[in-house]
Design brief:
The complex is a heterodimer. Chain A is an all-alpha fold. Chain A has one domain. Chain A is built from 22 helices and no strands. Chain A is globular. By secondary structure, chain B is mainly alpha-helical. Chain B has one domain. In chain B, helix 1 packs antiparallel against helix 4 and helix 5 packs antiparallel against helix 6. The chains are: A mainly alpha, B mainly alpha. At the A-B interface, helix 7, helix 8 and helix 11 of A face helix 6 and helix 7 of B.
Chain lengths: 518, 213
């Protein structure tokens, strides 16, 4: 029931947002929905947490009993709520829902980040009162709803449908400013991601077809796929994985399919950029994780690993090239997202300890990106620009946002005592442990280049004296613009100093689930 | 049944080649619409027992792919007052030859791709590959926004054809979701095309190149 409620929160809020006539009060539906969403997520994560409990729930299932034969590790993961709810079309809703352990990590991130972004958005839209924000509010809620569905379903086909829905619902968000550049960014985003995602659908079909080739009953349910994977046809499975990786990799921003990402992140309003780079591309990473899991269980993990490591390092290299000398602060952060998606792919490819690090990195990167994009949003609003000759002395002009931006840069490039330092260290440690010394060396070298390239731009923007144009605007850090930035930043700091035990449990559970073959 | 199926698939391949060779955009949209209608006829031919659900799916496919989506594209075309695709990166004649070569290759490899116990795959898989190739060719070598969208549409059609092999595995909810996504996708895209027209006074996507580095 909880999962169903979680999925329904956003559509209901979106309908309400469409009906509220006041342009001034409508944005408040975002924080309201966000808080309800986060409470439900907390309820689900704390309630249905342990695998033992979930397996017990499996036994009491009273609906259609056709698919309950799955092995316990998978069953525990898939089962969150098993009360059969037959509806008009004969579809049992609980057959579609279930959050796997890596999904729980991403769900927590997406929900918490949206709370911060929603409060920020209220302040942001207040500055844009002349523009109608109905479409924006409805689409932002639909966007979160679609993401929630990607995470909370257990059917490869429905995941795809929801993933494409995230593309469609977020396109109007990029276009909010109605400038020529934002049209261009929206067009590239729509076409590239739609085509990319289309390949992922073909990949899902290939994976299902791999069962038919060997005379098995085809299915798109993750539990069935994992059970049958060892007996499936390897060629079709590998081809399917490549398509899934290219498809969801496009959405995730892995090089060389990343070209939409800097444009979309650069041109959309900052709270949208923060959700993109914190939550959306992490959700796409979750899809890559799920695809890799199927191949791993099929006994073909080495094939997936090679591809993931290659794309991971390539993404980091691309990001390093484009970040050096980058004048546009938001585009710089966007390339940093490409880099960190590369790091995640690398961690997933290497596996073991590095996989645990990657799971933690999903969280640390997500919150750091939230803090960075929201603080750059404030800088943009204060200076009326997001490029460096115009932006100077941000620390002096905006003490809170400027400082968080500077410290956030240190965090995202992997300096202690912040969260990403811990997660990158674990990934690096895992890489050495697995004996990939050359890869570890390349990883460190690229991190260094990125640190230097990013540092030049960030220091130029934050240090020095404030130009005249920047002093003239009235914008100051306020409650709605400052608090979300501070909240994200404090989480990043906390994750660097102390990781709560339940969170470790969540991360370990996710990593173990992906490593252990049922 | 399999005879009718094969006949339709051959028609679908011919439409691909036509789409690669024509410069008139209206004809291109009509071709895509015809292909959509033909695709809608396929699922009832493939399933073993034709119930109401497969027929309903067929109807939804025909209405969306054959009528609603082409109409949206025709409207986008009227707004922009463009009639022809100009200066493709690969000419029309070479495009047809490439498309034909790809189709022939896919057909030649069909025996290896499809398993022996699935006679359906023998023509379905190569047709699907041919359509994917056509879609990609239109997407990458044409410059007008509407033509690129049709490329995307043909690509999705190719995936639809591959989906015929998995009808028992793909729940109707998912199929309906895929169709709905496609419909909303083209709807959003045609709105953006409208704005491109207004802002740039052209549908030429080569003009969308100010964001770099």
């Amino acid at each position: 029931m909880d999962v169903l409620a979680l999925i329904l929160v956003c559509p209901i809020a979106a309908v309400l947002a469409a009906m509220i006539p006041s342009n001034r009060w409508r944005p408040w539906i975002l924080p309201a929905a966000a808080v309800v969403h986060l409470s439900l997520v907390a309820l689900i994560l704390l309630g249905g947490g342990g695998p033992a409990k979930a397996t017990a729930g499996q036994a009491t299932r009273n609906g259609i009993a056709a698919t309950t034969a799955a092995a316990p590790p998978i069953a525990g993961a898939q089962t969150v709520n098993k009360v059969a709810l037959p509806d008009a079309g004969g579809i049992v809703i609980s057959d579609w829902l279930g959050i796997d352990p890596p999904g729980r990590v991403v769900l927590l991130l997406a929900s918490m980040l949206f709370v911060a972004c929603s409060f920020y958005t209220v302040g942001y839209l207040r500055d844009h009162m002349d523009q109608l924000n109905r479409v924006f509010c409805v689409c932002f809620l639909a966007f979160l709803g679609a993401m929630t569905l990607v995470i909370c379903t257990n059917n490869l086909g429905l995941m795809w449908v929801a993933m494409e829905a995230t593309t469609l619902s977020s396109a109007p968000l990029i276009y909010f400013k109605h400038t020529r550049n934002s049209i261009e960014a929206t067009w590239k985003y729509l076409l590239l991601c739609s085509v990319g995602i289309a390949l992922a659908l073909l990949g899902s079909f290939f994976v299902a077809y791999a069962a038919i080739v060997h005379g098995l009953t085809p299915s798109l349910r993750i539990a069935d796929l994992l059970r049958q994977a060892p007996a499936m046809d390897k060629r079709w499975l590998e081809a399917g994985f490549v398509l899934l990786l290219v498809g969801y990799g496009t959405k995730m921003g892995l090089a060389p399919m990343h070209s939409w990402l800097p444009d979309a992140h650069g041109e959309s309003p900052s709270p949208v950029s923060a959700m993109f780079s914190g939550a959306l591309i992490s959700t796409a990473f979750l899809m890559v994780v799920r695809s890799q899991h199927i191949l791993h269980v099929a006994g073909d993990g080495a094939y997936a690993s090679r591809l993931l490591i290659l794309l991971g390092l390539l993404s980091m290299a691309f990001a390093a090239i484009f970040m050096v000398g980058q004048k546009d602060l938001k585009r710089m952060l966007a390339y940093s997202s490409v880099e960190h998606m590369g790091i995640l792919a690398l961690g997933l490819g290497i596996g073991g300890m590095a996989l645990l690090g990657a799971m933690l990195h999903v969280l640390t990167n997500g919150f750091t990106k939230g803090a960075l994009f929201l603080s750059v949003g404030n800088i943009d609003r204060a200076y009326g620009s997001k490029t460096i000759p115009e932006v100077r002395g941000a620390v002096r002009r905006l003490p809170l946002s400027g400082m968080v931006f500077l410290l956030g840069f240190l965090a995202i490039t992997g300096s202690p005592p912040f969260g990403p330092f811990i997660s990158e260290l674990i990934i690096l440690y895992g890489t050495f442990m697995a004996g990939h010394f050359l890869i570890a060396a390349a990883f460190l070298g690229l991190l260094l280049i990125i640190f230097i390239g990013m540092g030049r731009t960030v220091l130029a923007a934050t240090q020095g004296s404030v130009p005249v144009a920047g002093r003239r605007s009235h914008f100051r850090d306020g409650l709605l613009s400052g608090l979300p930035v501070l909240a994200c930043f404090l989480i990043v700091l906390l994750l660097g100093l102390y990781i709560p035990v339940p969170l470790w449990g969540l991360l370990h559970h996710a990593a173990n689930y992906l490593e252990v073959k049922p | 049944m399999i005879m009718i199926l094969n006949a339709i698939l051959v028609l679908v391949i011919l439409i691909n080649l036509f789409a690669l060779g024509t410069s008139r955009m209206k004809a291109l949209i009509h071709a895509a619409a015809l292909q959509g209608v033909l695709l809608g006829l396929l699922p009832p031919l493939v399933v073993k027992d034709v119930g109401t659900l497969p027929l309903l799916m067929a109807a939804v496919t025909i209405v969306l792919k054959g009528i609603l989506i082409p109409n949206m594209l025709l409207k986008a075309l009227r707004d922009a007052q463009v009639k022809r695709e100009v200066e493709p990166l690969i000419g029309f004649m070479p495009s047809i030859l490439l498309g034909a070569a790809a189709t022939a290759m896919a057909l030649a490899l069909a025996g290896q791709l499809a398993p022996a116990h699935s006679p359906l795959g023998l023509l379905v898989i190569p047709t699907s590959i041919s359509m994917l190739f056509t879609g990609f060719l239109l997407l990458t070598t044409r410059v007008k926004a509407v033509t690129q969208v049709i490329g995307f549409l043909l690509l999705e059609n190719g995936i639809f054809v591959f989906g015929l092999l998995l009808l028992s595995a793909i729940p109707y909810l998912v199929e309906l979701g895929v169709l709905l996504d496609l419909f909303v996708g083209i709807f959003v895209i045609s709105i953006i095309i409208h704005h491109i027209n207004r802002a740039f006074a052209s549908q030429d996507t080569r003009r969308l190149s100010s964001l770099k580095g």
